[in-house]
Write a structure and sequence with these properties.
Distance between the termini of chain A: 52 Å
Oligomer: heterodimer
Structural class of chain A: mainly alpha
Number of strands of chain A: 0
Structural class of chain B: alpha/beta
Number of domains of chain B: 3
CATH superfamily of the largest domain in chain B: von Willebrand factor, type A domain
Radius of gyration of chain A: 19 Å
CATH class of the largest domain in chain B: Alpha Beta
Number of helices of chain A: 8
Number of strands of chain B: 22
Chain lengths: 181, 495
């Protein structure tokens, strides 16, 4: 009873603050698609694939789409052999990625979340970053690039972009002078 | 812009995935890191855009019911925020009052009726919930110190709807509040309700002699100095005439300031003494301008508080000013708080004679008290103002103008001080604070009667030779009493 009351109070507070969850029906469908595609992977370790699929759905339900997306990729890394990307991108892998990326896109473009006025931009940024990461991973797998450098590029570019947005906001709010001193 | 733990958790996920990719040589994990990072950037960009739009559209007004107030007064401050469109997320506002102001929550009902229809909150903070367009709050500020106070711009705080980012930015404008010290306002110095412009003016002298002010011409008599001959008048009138000049004399001024407990009547900062102090300071300024010697004697309930001999130096004038500013009337020490007044010798004698003629048990009982001692002599002699006037004024040489600053509660003693102060060629300027002007009495008619009684007393003094008597008090109170009297007269005529 107490837990029920707490969850009601939490929901009330979230409603007052206008906080929304990141989960949508489309996101749920995408999570299911990713889980099914993961379980259906023909190569690798099937038991790990099943556990990974369940973990994706569970984390989407209990945590957030970002956690499910990350867990999905950890499961992929565990299931697929180390040189899976070196010989090309298998179709089953693409199906898993479609499900995982679909989860992210569904929450990034959901109605009610302040999307900044541009759904296309949100989709574009998510896709560009994911494909960019994929491209770096593919190049690294083919030994065209050191993996540590590819990792540093992903983290560095993301950090730089986030800092740029932070500075842009300071300027737009007129806080530059106050924060620089 | 700030971020929450939720954001840091997801940013950490990006780093962990990238680290795991390198550690276990699994490039596929980089896709996961890049996807989460891209998603976070999308949310950040959306938040930045929303906050920028909100900050440009948001209208926050900060207003005070009174922009200028006096120490101890309260002013209600209203913080009002409005958006042209529903808020995309909850926006919290907070007023930033300066240090030194005491803040207390305002009465919501009072604020709602007077200021805004939508004031639902009190205190420094207001919240504009997601989907709403307006919010307001009100609070009261009180300042125990005088000075200029500036409220910083109100602060708006927002958190994005997924709880990852937050931003705090100033919105609206500053608010200036001036807190003036409590003190006499509209100091009225006058007579019979009429203000007098120059109560410390020149003193007339009956003597003529060497000086600068021409008082007239007269016929030449042997012994007059040749350089005093007015040649134009001599030519015009056909016989020698000389010019007469008013003698310039240096007249010492003596400030006799009453600091006894009765001078504490009135509101804080607007007591009888506060008004009298303004007059005393003006006298110092006047003496300084003329270079007149000035002395200060301040009297409390138990005797002399300040004994400053005549001075003509700038330092001396400054010292007198400092002492005047530091002086405060004494507190009433008598448990009952009631003051007794001495009776004059004439009244005492009259009462004794009346008692003598009485043939009753009551008269028999009282007669010994009147026969054994004259209470008046003891009482007046004990009066500190009288005692100081008698002892100190006798020590001064030359022409003296006594400026007595007191009230009307001890009239007999004041009359006696008047007698001492106008001995010889000395003058007295009495500045009296009518008690009727310092009462909280709501009944203006009753106050007017007491004021009229004071006016009779003032005229009695002013009719004496070399005595000028003025009333000192709050001008608005004088006007209120006179207006009440006029209305009363009109009503009587109408009836």
């Amino acid at each position: 009873m107490a837990g029920h009351a707490d969850s009601e109070a939490g929901a009330e507070r979230r409603k007052r603050d206008g906080l929304t969850t990141d989960r949508t029906k489309l996101g749920g469908a995408s999570a299911l698609l990713a889980a099914v595609a993961l379980i259906g992977l023909t190569e690798g370790r099937p038991l790990v694939a099943v556990l990974g699929g369940l973990a994706v759905v569970a984390s989407w339900l209990l945590l957030a789409p970002t956690s499910a997306f990350a867990l999905g990729h950890v499961a992929l890394a565990a299931v697929l052999p180390a040189n899976a990307l070196a010989s090309g991108v298998p179709l089953e892998l693409l199906a898993v990625e479609v499900g995982l990326v679909g989860m992210l896109l569904a929450s990034a473009t959901r109605r009610g979340v302040d999307a900044g006025g541009s759904v296309a931009l949100a989709v574009g940024v998510v896709l560009a970053w994911t494909f960019g990461g994929g491209a770096l991973a593919w190049i690294a797998a083919r030994s065209g690039l050191d993996l540590w450098l590819a990792g540093a590029l992903v983290v560095g570019a993301s950090g730089l972009a986030a800092y740029g947005l932070h500075r842009y906001q300071l300027v737009s709010l007129g806080l530059v002078g106050e924060t620089d001193e | 812009m700030g971020v929450t733990r939720r954001f840091w958790g997801e940013a950490g996920l990006v780093v962990v995935l990238a680290g795991l990719a390198v550690l276990f040589a699994r490039p596929i994990l980089l896709v996961g890191a890049a996807g989460v990072a891209g998603w976070l950037l999308t949310r950040q960009y959306a938040f930045v855009r929303s906050v920028s739009k909100v900050s440009s559209d948001l209208a926050v007004a900060q207003s005070a019911s009174k922009g200028a107030l006096r120490v101890g007064d309260e002013s209600r401050v209203l913080l009002d925020a409005e958006l042209p469109q529903p808020a995309p997320f909850t926006i919290d506002f907070e007023a930033n009052p300066p240090v030194g102001l005491e803040v207390r929550e305002s009465d919501t009902d009072e604020v709602t009726e007077n200021d805004a229809d939508e004031v639902a909150e009190t205190g420094l903070r207001a919240s504009l919930s997601a989907g709403q367009r307006a919010a307001a709050t009100a609070f009261a500020v009180r300042c125990p110190l005088a000075g200029a106070f500036e409220f910083d711009r109100p602060t708006a705080s927002v958190t994005d709807r997924t709880g990852r980012f937050r931003a705090t930015f100033p919105a609206g404008s500053e608010l200036d509040l001036t807190v003036n010290p409590r003190g006499p306002r509209n100091v009225h110095v006058g007579a019979g309700g009429e203000a007098v412009q120059a109560p410390f003016g020149e003193y007339a002298s009956d003597d003529t002699g060497p000086g600068f002010e021409l008082t007239g011409i007269r016929s030449y008599v042997p012994g007059d100095e040749v350089n005093h001959i007015d040649w134009n008048a001599t030519a015009r009138l056909g016989e020698p005439h000389v010019r007469k000049f008013e003698t310039t004399t240096e007249r010492a001024s003596v400030l006799l300031v009453d600091c006894r407990s009765s001078m504490a009547d009135g509101a804080e900062g607007e007591t009888k003494f506060d008004y009298v102090r303004q007059v005393a300071l003006a006298v110092v300024e006047h003496a300084r301008d003329r270079g007149d010697p000035l002395a200060l004697y301040a009297v409390g309930d138990d005797g002399l508080l300040v004994d400053q001999s005549p001075t003509t130096t700038e330092e001396g004038y400054r010292l007198i000013e400092r002492r005047l500013r530091a002086l405060e009337p004494e507190e009433i020490t008598d448990d009952s708080g009631k003051r007794t007044e001495a009776i004059s010798p004439a009244t005492a004698r009259r009462r004794a004679q009346r008692l003598h003629g009485e043939d009753s048990a009551f008269a028999d009982r009282l007669e010994p008290f009147f026969a054994d001692a004259d209470p008046y002599v003891e009482r007046v002699t004990d009066d500190p103002l009288f005692r100081v006037a008698r002892t100190r004024l006798d020590q001064l040489h030359g022409a003296v103008t006594v400026v007595a600053l007191t009230d009307d509660t001890r009239r007999t003693e004041t009359r006696e001080v008047t007698k001492i102060a106008r001995r010889g060629d000395d003058h007295l300027r009495a500045f009296l604070t009518p008690t009727a002007l310092f009462e909280d009495e709501a009944d203006l008619e009753a106050s007017y009667d007491r004021y009229a009684d004071f006016e009779r007393f003032r005229r009695e003094l002013a009719n004496l030779d070399r005595v000028t008597a003025f009333e000192v008090g709050p001008g608005d109170r004088v006007e209120a009493l006179l207006a009440a009297n006029r209305m009363q007269k009109r009503a009587r005529r109408g009836a």
